[in-house]
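[Automated response] Your request has been received and processed.

Submitted sequence:
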Amino acid sequence: MARPDKAASVAEVVDSFNNATGAVLTDYRGLTVKGLQELRRSLGENASYAVVKNTLTKIAAQEVGIDEFEDLLVGPTAIAFINGDVVEAAKGLRDFAKANPALIIKGGVLDGEFLDAGAVAKLADLESREVLMGKLAGAMLASLSQAVYLFNAPLSKAARLAGALEAKRVEESGQDSTDSLAGGAGAPADSTAEEATEA
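Generated structure:
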């Protein structure tokens, strides 16, 4: 490959690494063209799958600060560049590899952090972003409902207690409940008014 072409190819792979949320390296030996097409479909819309020469991948990975790929770049290598839900793409790779043992997951990178093959498999076992967001929203709603209940419970208890105390006071004094609620504004208020006019 001529030097300008090689530099352009490296720059393209560097851009793919920089623009992707994550990337997974695979060995695709033994897969047919039809199998590769199926694999691309199983990754979903937010991922691309490209066969890249090991020398280009090595140079590009070093340029973006991923040194751990060097040991993985043995044999034919293809890279799944993931631009969306990493978990969904990891599940697609895992499920395809189960059905097609020719595909071997070598490792990957997520947000600049290196992942070995086992970590990529664990990533595939996580729930998708949508499911996790739904669970988070449900948990927040449940917490909010519980908080409303906790705030309302003391208020309703206080209101019941105040009502019980008032009823007990009325019962002990023998007053009419309407007089007691008016603050005893019956006869005493009238006598005070009379005293004020006499003075």
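Summary generated for your ticket: Residues 182-199 have pLDDT under 50 and may be disordered. Residues 129-176 form one domain.
If you did not submit this request, please reply to this message.
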